[in-house]
Backbone:
């Protein structure tokens, strides 16, 4: 198999301790180029992490023949445009979650890679972690819990108390929503993996917290039990 030579678009915090070092440590994988709108910041990341090349534009990174796979690690508002560029360049893409801000953007991304005949992956990596694989075995193979009728996930954070201090994750025009979109999508993916496949038959998103920011922070949905389907 050909070695995977990664180029990263958007080397922010998520790349400092997770994806950047991970690409370098994985078998048959290397990180050969990074890109950020600020070339100085891209070069700083490259220098600190031992990455050979740094670019200030997406076009430069995609034109690099050494890069044969691209990781998009930018906020969701840019995913559609960047993903379409990667697909047009004919390079496999690993796209940070959530896939996009809404269904129409996600559908357009999927269509671009399908038409280009290029693989697309979204960063729901937790299914590969041992603890979640064991949880799935407990439910599906060992049958130690009986029939599961309800699952609850709760995440609390005080980072989004007022509009002036709001991080991009709490700005709907950038993220597509709030914590439900940013963190909740991981929870939904794991519920589907451990208890599913989940077939949603009804859902409600709402704001229950006291923050000034008008984004949903709670999601309720119902689904038939896997063993009833």
Residues:
């Amino acid at each position: 198999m050909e070695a995977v030579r990664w180029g990263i678009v958007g080397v922010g915090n998520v790349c400092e301790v997770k994806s950047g070092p991970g690409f370098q440590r994985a078998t048959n994988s290397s990180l050969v180029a990074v890109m950020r709108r600020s070339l100085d910041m891209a070069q700083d990341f490259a220098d600190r992490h031992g990455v050979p090349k740094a670019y200030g534009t997406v076009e430069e990174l995609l034109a690099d023949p050494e890069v044969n796979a691209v990781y998009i690690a930018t906020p969701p508002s840019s995913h559609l445009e960047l993903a379409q560029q990667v697909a047009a360049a004919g390079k496999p893409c690993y796209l940070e979650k959530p896939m996009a801000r809404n269904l129409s953007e996600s559908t357009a991304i999927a269509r671009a890679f399908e038409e280009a005949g290029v693989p697309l992956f979204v960063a729901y990596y937790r299914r590969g972690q041992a603890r979640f694989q064991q949880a799935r075995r407990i439910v599906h193979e060992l049958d130690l819990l009986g029939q599961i009728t309800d699952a609850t996930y709760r995440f609390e954070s005080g980072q989004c108390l007022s509009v002036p201090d709001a991080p991009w994750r709490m700005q709907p025009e950038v993220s597509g929503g709030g914590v439900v979109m940013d963190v909740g999508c991981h929870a939904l993916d794991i519920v589907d993996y451990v208890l599913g496949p989940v077939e949603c038959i009804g859902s409600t998103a709402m704001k229950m917290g006291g923050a000034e920011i008008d984004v949903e922070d709670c999601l309720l949905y119902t689904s038939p039990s896997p063993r009833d389907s």
